Amino acid sequence: MCHYTSRAAALALLVGALACSDRPPGTAPDAPSGAPDASSAAARPELLARSLALALGDPAFRAHVKAELDRSPFREHKLSFQRFLAADRGRALSAIAGRTAVATTELARAADQAIPLEMYLPVPEHRRSWTGDASVLVATAVADHDPPVAFDVQGNRQLLDPERPPATAVIALVPVETDFSTAPAPIIGCWTCGFWPPLPPPPTPVPGLYMTQAHFVDDFEGWLKGAPEFEVHVLGQKGQTDSLTDYQCAGERQPTPYYFDQNALDWSGSVMLFSKVQLDAYNAAHPGQNIRVFVVEDDDTACEIKANRDIVGNLFKAVDGAYKALTAGNDSSNTVAKLFKRANAIQKLWAAVASFINTNDELVGTAVEDAVVGISYPGYNWIVKGENNATNGWLNLAMK
């Protein structure tokens, strides 16, 4: 992700350049109907969304936006909004200011003071069908599942259904979930296919706890936020206290071997959740304690669990109570087989788990071995139990 300070400096220079240009900046008379008050920090994404929507009334600007979205190398063709404004010596910022009643300096200030934002068409059908015509909305929402606030190209404001997207194409302007600091590697064809010698076999996996399959019953993501970002965390005792802490995260922002990217309800592959070295060190430092495998759908900050303290506590309380605290796991390998099996979650650990948890990720749930839950699914051996002991998915966990 680009550094916030770098973006601030770039926008400051951009504002200065525009202020000194031959073209006078736009003026801001009394705010028209439907325009948000830029003085409110919470309203800045709305101000920016409305300004972008008004600018999309210009066919040339729409064509520019569509071309930039289409050529984006990032997942779902996302663009960093602040970077988009500043690119090409402020081409987009200047175009937006020219179509709105917001001064260039005020628009730049709002973008600079807003949280980092990304823009894209989050609905796959909209990405396929939008031709760059004027039938488009710009929508924003800060928190997942909030009713999106949308504007058409005339600047009219409306609220959208947070659970179902409209038929009209929607460009989302939402808090950044993407790492824009480095462009993803280009996709290269199978240049070795049909050639000799063949590629060498893959390396032997590092010993540890692995996930090889995952299925979830929901994506736990509002449509405006696009594809989900599932993460799997290994939780364990914090020091010698009653609290849990996060020992390891596997997800799309993690390096190999902890990298995996699940953007649908089903995933298969091989991702390490906790190495054997990590597990042995944990067991030596915490004798008699065990680890939990905990799944979240991340909203904004990768591999940092953020959720309401009481919700987390109630989740662990319900699941631990239903299964007599057999809701953790540990290495149970022997000379015959490598196994990750059920183990006791020490009493009261859930009560203080919120010491490292703040706000807003979707808690998919904690994994419990299928033999404890009493249900099983072919190819899976651990069940993900969420709030009110609801079954939210199933995993295959294995020691390798």
What would you note in describing this structure?
- Strand 3 and strand 4 form a beta hairpin.
- The chain starts with a helix and ends with a strand.
- The strands form three sheets. Strands 9-8-11-14-15-16-7-10 form an eight-stranded antiparallel sheet. A six-stranded mixed sheet has the order 1-2-6-3-4-5.
- Residues 1-34, 37-42, 185-196 and 354-359 have low confidence and may be disordered.
- Helix 1 packs antiparallel against helix 5 (104-113).
- The chain has helices at 4-19, 44-55, 59-71, 81-99, 104-113, 124-129, 276-285, 309-322, 370-373, and strands at 79-80, 117-120, 136-140, 149-151, 157-159, 169-175, 208-216, 230-237, 244-250, 266-275, 292-297, 328-331, 340-343, 362-369, 382-385, 391-399.
- By secondary structure, it is an alpha+beta fold.
Number of helices: 9
**Average of per-residue pLDDT values:** 82
Give the overall shape, derived from the CA principal axes: elongated
Find the count of extended strands (DSSP E, 2+ residues).
16
Broad structural category = alpha+beta
Uncertain regions spanning at least 5 consecutive residues: 1-34, 37-42, 185-196, 354-359
Supply Rg.
24 Å
Helical proportion? Answer: 25-40%
- Give the ordered list of helices and strands: HHHEHHEHEEEEEEEEHEHEEEHEE
Distance between the termini: 34 Å
Please describe the biggest sheet, giving its number of strands, its sense, and whether it closes into a barrel.
Answer: 8 strands, antiparallel
What fraction strand?
A: 15-25%
Instruction: Indicate the multimeric state.
Output: single chain
**Major sheet strand order:** 9-8-11-14-15-16-7-10
